[in-house]
Structure formats: C-alpha cells, structure tokens
Amino acid sequence: MATEVESPPVESEQPEVKSEEAEKPEENHVEEKQDDTANENKPEEAEANAVAEGEKQEENGSLPPKVLLYQHPPWNFIPSPLPACIKVETYCRMMKIPYENVYKAGTDQKLPYLEYQGETKKHNLLGFLNSKFEVDADANLSEKDKACSRAFQCMAEENTFWSLMYYRWVDNFSETKKYFKGLDVVRKNVRPKLDQGKCVKCLEAHEIGKHNKEEIYAIGEKDLRAMSAFLDDKEFFMGSDPSTIDCTMFGLLSCLLHTAESSPLAKVIKEDLKNLGDFCDRMKLNFWLDWNELCSEEQVEETRPKSRLSVKKKKRTKSQEPAAEAKEGETSGEKEGEKKEGEENKEETPAVNGEPAEETPAEEPKEQAEGEKEEAKESEEKKEDAEAPVENGEGGDAPKTEEAQE
Which residue segment(s) compose the domain that 299 sits in? Predict the structure, then answer.
C-alpha cells in the first residue's frame, strides 16, 4: 500500500511573518509618511528650479548684454546737443541694438564712446557695433552708393559741424553759457569761458575759424543746399530704406533746428530747404517716438550740471528717526554730566584773580580755637611778670607791651 506523505504545514510560517511585521508597525508607518512628504515636495522644488533656470537663461542666453552709451545729457529740447551722440543712438535704435545711456556732463573725454563686455571704444563706433552684433545698415547699398554716402557724411561732420559750433560758442555764447547756471558762482563763470577757448582753438586749427562771420555761415549754407538737392523728394537719403547716412544727417540737422533755431542756418532750413525739416520729422516718427519725454524740462534739470559746493540736508526716514533721537539723547546726557562735574570742581577749588579763595567754613572753628589758646598764654605771662619780687629797690622788668599787642 502506498503511504501518504504529509506535506509540511505552510500555515505555521505565515503567522511568524505577520508577527515580525507587527513588532514595528509604527516605524514603518513613519518611514512611509516621510517618503510621501518627500515625494510631494519634489515637484515643488523642481518647479522652482525650473523657473530660476528659465530666468537665468533669459538673462544670460536669449537677451544679450546692453551696450553702455556714454554721451552728453539732454539740453534745450533735444536728447543730446552733440550730433555724434544723436547719430550713434539713432543707429542703435534703427538696428535694434540693446543699449543704455550713461550721461557724462562736463567730462574731459571725447563724447560719445561705447563700453561693451568690458571693452571701451572711442573711435569708429558704428564699425564696432557692426562687428559685435553682426549688423550693417549699408549692406544693401552698391559700392557707388557707399562712396556717395561717405562723401556726404564727411562734409557734414568735418565742415558743416563747425558752422554750428561757431554759432554756439562764439556768435551766441551769451545763450550757451546759461546751461551752466546751476553751478556755483565761480564755476558758472569760469567753466563756459574755458569751453569757449577750446572751441575757438579747434576752429582755428580747422582753418574755418580764420574766416569771418559771414563767410562761415555761407560755407554752412552751401553744405545744407547740397544735402537738400541730394535728398530731393526721397524718403531717406539713399532711397526708401534708412542707412548710416541718415543717422549722421539727422544728428546734425536736429541740433541745428533745436539748439540753434535762431541761427542763419536754421532759418535757411525752415524757409528754403523744407525737405530737410520733413526728413527730421520722419526720423522721429520711425525711431524717436519718446523724443519729447527724453528732453522734457524735468529731465533737463535733473541732468544739468550742478554745484558740488551745495550741501543739502538728508531727510530722515521713519526707520532712522528713533536711532537719531536715541543718539541725541545720549549726547545731551553726556553734556549735562560734564557740566555737573565742572560745577563740582569749581566749588572745590575756586580762584579769584589768580589767588586761592578763602577756606571753607568747616575749617574756621579750628583756627578760632588756636587763636584763643595763644591769647590765654600771653595773658598768663603778663600776670607772672607783674607779680615778680623787687630786688635792690628796683622793680622787675616791665612787661613787653609791644609783644603783647602783637
């Protein structure tokens, strides 16, 4: 007969496993809770890190660093009184180059100049911008058009410009020096004279300063008429699209119309060469919609050179007032303590006319007692002398009245 083999009991092992699990139910429960909270916090941390990385990418990756444009501050309803500053800023706007203005009034350095990624450039500024940002406003021009554009720009910057400087610093100097009215009494009179002397030397070195007043304005008028003839009825100087020459011409013409509006050159533009004035209006509409905001009266006054000698009291904020009051209380307490100590010292050792004052009344009784003792001794000596016996019919020595009186 076949014997039946009994299988080992399996049920007996299950309670043992359950008992081991039941020994530490709380620990496992806590660990599970910790794992759940960690899993819940992970998505929030991931989102915060993603936002931070996105911001860094926007700052560093997608948005290039800005060019720092050092130039003269606004003056007389114009963002800058220097044609070169208007030229460079217009080029940045036209080519959509990110930039930031840094106003440098009264500097000895030539303005404008650029600073980009630690590199400073003071000459050939547009070429520097073209190489750094890989742009070129004259890329669509032919070689003939580029040559013509360069010739007109050289005429404007090296010839017509000095007619403007002559009017500003020689012919109309009384109005120009009003820009420095915010300086102190000495500097507002000395500084304009120094700048005028520099400009006159530059005019003479350029040879145009050797001409008389009428000849200088005649040279500038001929240049303006040549510009008007070349522009004709075109939208921009080289056609329907703006280029580098438009930035140069706009810089010069805008300074003539806004800083020398009473000059003979500005009158010629307004009366005879109206296409040049219309060209300036188109440039403002295309690239300078914030023209009036940049050169408002408030902006001009904020950036106007001011005296360094003026001292203005700083206004205390609410957070600074308690600290200031506590300091004032400490200083006043120290001063009162010093006054009390000084009064006590004066009471102890006062002096009158360089001689020590009388002693305090506490010491007076001692001196009186000593004086009384001396008088008593003197009176006893007198009595002894009067009672002395007479020898050989002669009386004794007479008392010394002088000593007693003393």
Answer: 67-303
